[in-house]
Amino acid sequence: MAELPLRRALQNSRGDPMVLASSPISITLLAITVLVMVMPLVLRQMGKSRILAQLAAEED
Hints:
By secondary structure, the protein is an all-alpha fold. The protein has 2 helices and no strands.
């Protein structure tokens, strides 16, 4: 559903992807999308480091 409008926007801008981040609303939506994609990775790493710290404390 979004492919056709994306293709049109890129054709109108002659392939410049910065047209997708030209308004404050689109920048906000892109930032939220990046956060949603990155946060699970960060939380997973935090959980692993917490578990490793607990294991190290138990060994001492």
